[in-house]
Queue: 3 jobs
Job 1
Amino acid sequence: MVTVKRVVTLKDCRELSSRLRSEDRKEVRAFQPNIPLAQALHDCVQMSYKTYAVMEEGVGCIAIFGMRKCEPPTGKPFGVPWLLCSDELFKSGCKKFIKESKEYLKEVTEDFYYYFNYVAATNLKAHRWLSWMGFHINKEVTRTVNGVSFYPFIYLRNDNV
């Protein structure tokens, strides 16, 4: 059985770091190459104002997700959504969470109308999930960080989500 809790702990980050998907690990390492993986995950959580842990009974933390706030020097603040997971998230027992993730999208996107982040160009499972969720991935623009290519993705909230 899979449940979602509203607060991510360091213990959750440690559990997930031991089973993080290779594509997600590559993304984290591109931005934080020199610190332990569990600490990098916890730093992401600490920089966010909304965080959630996906827990599987008998396994532990299989995913974390959340929202950071970005306040650029000019322009309006926007949200930075993120999700990091293990392969367990895509197994049959987690179909319920995948289906319910659109409900969580409503919850994490209630504060802004514009959301922006990057996804590794090779993270195809993330591309499919982001597209299904309503995000637009711009595959014509690439940003490279420490040898990893990323595509920007955006989400414009509407009140009919």
Job 2
Amino acid sequence: MNEFSHPITDNTPPKQRYGCWTIGGFIILIALNLGVLFWWVFGPDIAVSAWSVEGSISSLTFTPDNQLLAIPGRGISQHPLSVSFYNVQNGMKVRELAGPDTACITFSSDGRLLAGGGMDGIVRIWSMPEGQLIAELERHTSAVSSIAFSSNGQLLLSSGMKSDVHLWDVSTRTLLRTYHTPADSIITHVALSPDGRFVTAGGIGGMWLWNAQDGRLLREVPSSVVAFSADSQLMITGDELLRVDDGSVVQDYRHSKQYGQRFDIAISPDGQLFSSAVRPIGSGVGLLWKEQVPIYLHRISDGTRMQSLRGHRDGVIGLAFSPDGRLVATAGNDGMVRIWPVGIFWPQRLIIFGLVVALQLFIVRRMAS
């Protein structure tokens, strides 16, 4: 037989012959995959969209269809502007409402009314979606700093930067009641409980809680922002969860000491999550340090941090959840507006991470056996 006709023999078992390449390649694939998973679990979430705006924006709200973000306008003398509407997905401005400069805005629960607090001290109400101005409420002697509709849209609460808090009847355009604050207070935030029984106002100097019906001051709390739970039994502040009836602390979820003033607070539509807008102490010092300013989504029931959003350089001064609860918009002191997904939270991510790792290790062991 010709030497070239001899059969080639190899007694190496197939698994050993090809195992080194197969398992080695799989291990490399796993390493890359685990890196991606690690970033998915522990890395910062990525904004859906982001765009820059002129001026400092401390108030923003989604339109009822979740498609647009309404932001108070900053016009010039030749082109006065009250409200601008931006496409949530690409940040393009699609609509404007002309009028005097506006400091804060909010939609009624049914989306049919949009209220804006003017820099001239006048509260304006537009019918939506046509954008027709239907009311002007004049009682404030300074710029309107915060406004809030009642849950049924029949009442409107407003505060002046350096004046008292007013409660309005929306249908009759009449002033129902005034809630008095200390003369040296600067009000930045107001809220009306869903059941209509309580009114709060907060800012530099603290937060005050009144009986909405008779105007009696019930309590003073050392917090600048507050929101109510869906059942009106709890107050959510930037640091604590408090009982409305006696002010006792239910949960303490205060931020790190590096954070300073709280500017805004938002609660998800389902009442399960909240987030507060904060600026760091020493704001404006060092670009690299300023990048490390997260926005946390907390679970209201126990204060657990569910999601971390990073991107704003100098803290956040305004935020809002979309009506469907899938997005949250933030306005930073860096002049940027960002739209974030409200996604799978930390506990779920860690569980999925563990399951994927266990499955891949099981496959590697089976291939190596």
Job 3
Amino acid sequence: MEWELTFRVAHPSDAELLGRLNFLLIRDEGRRNPMSESELVARMQWLRSDLFAKELLPVNTGISVDALCHNSAGLAFWRSLGFQDYSLSLELE
């Protein structure tokens, strides 16, 4: 499967959708983030500033993403876009 990635600058009206998607991602990945959907939506209110537009990545800037070790679908997705394994974080609870 071949993917084509595009992006656009998020708009303040996207905050609710992005918060919901973030909530679903956290749940699907099995992360331990205790934030509720409404808390994640509120966190997205930073979109109301033009900070993101001012901080867009310069051309040729590297990008790092995190994926949980047990998230095989997520790992496969990022690898299919050309991302390569770089490090592994370990923790002891």
